[in-house]
Amino acid sequence: MSERPNWTSKYAFIVTTIGSAVGLGNIWRFPYIMGQNGGAIFLAVYIILISTICFIPLINELYIGKLTKRECIGAYESINRNFKFLGVLNPITGILIAAFYFIVGGWIINYILKSILNFNINDYGEYFSNFIQQPVYPCILTILFLFICIFVTAKGVKNGIEATNKILMPLLAAILIFLVIISINLPNANIGLEYMFKPDFSKLNSHMVLAALGQAFFTLSIGMGALLTYGSYIKEDKSLVKSVYTIILSDTAFAILAGIMIFPAVFSFNMEPNSGAGLVFVTLPKIFSQIPYGNIVSLAFFILLLCAAITSGISIVEGPCASMVERFKISRAKACTILFIVISVLAIPATLSFGYLSDFKILGKTIFEFLDFLTSNLMLPLNTLFLCIISGWYLKIKGINIIKNKFFALLFDAGLRFVVPIALICLMLIGLN
Ligand code: PHE
What we know:
- The protein has a single domain, classed as Amino acid/polyamine transporter I, CATH 1.20.1740.
- The protein is 76% helix and 0% strand.
- Bound molecules: phenylalanine.
- Phenylalanine (PHE) binds next to helix 1, helix 2, helix 11 and helix 15.
């Protein structure tokens, strides 16, 4: 078998990991969850959690990858043979996430095509629900999006994953800044900015805190082995702490900028910020249709969303791909072909769950909702919990080996052993209700 790949530089590692983190979670999910949870106060809680509690499992996952230099299953196995099945849960989680995440990737491709072909519709809500209910077209788009991510992954760590992130991430930042400038220059943009930055403390509650925590874990891609795999490609990084803070800071900046891009526009056109998942696919297209050069703005926005989804999509595929390559000793191309088939088989019924299969329910949820629920509320926190317990209680990893500052190292030790596991258990208990 060929040698294990490595990142060509520290920049490559950081930009690719930021690429994994910055995704639909930042631009699609973050604004609508913030919209449903009271705006600025949610943002404040989110920033506190992401820069403290989330730092620990993020660095832990990368560190275990860097330490073991193995893909997920091998990494767990090398710690203790009996942990192997816990490792297997990671690529499985990745495949299940792919099955619903990539559907949204397909929707984005449709909106790009619509923006090119002049997007003038009377009722955007009706358009969106009719579109996702169709039996064939959304399936084709989902598979197209899956194909793009699989193709990049199959080209390898250096020529595929690294090269794509190095192009798409700067493009993503440039488009985002362009759209932010347009948005804050709309009439009454200040109302949206106030909504984002002037906290209303009456909206503070435990449910919202947990929503912020769940969002922070999801957006950092913690808990499915993507980071562990990316960490295993690090040749040397003497200041992993600095890299991790760069990743967290950038991810948060992208989320905040996405909010600054969306909320002033929403308030400027007297629309509701709490329309949930439809915020990006219904409310925004309605706004685009009312502004000058709306088609170009719409095209730019959905290209931005596509870049973000691809760089995260690649990381979702890379975990299971690396596991298959290293365990079954097969080529990347073969592993990617198998993954393409497996994810398609799962994603097609999930795509159909908006139309044909909408009456097929698991625990009262459609297939799409169930996959989202199972992975985001259960499997991601559970995998993270296992890894924290393994590091903190079994390997007895000491913060001082990772963080040079003694005080912060002690905080890290307490966080890894107690605070993060407790927070994760609360997250799962609330998520299961
Ligand atoms: N972090 C990605 C996002 O924000 C989603 C993701 C979750 C990617 C888990 C990989 C693993 O969209």
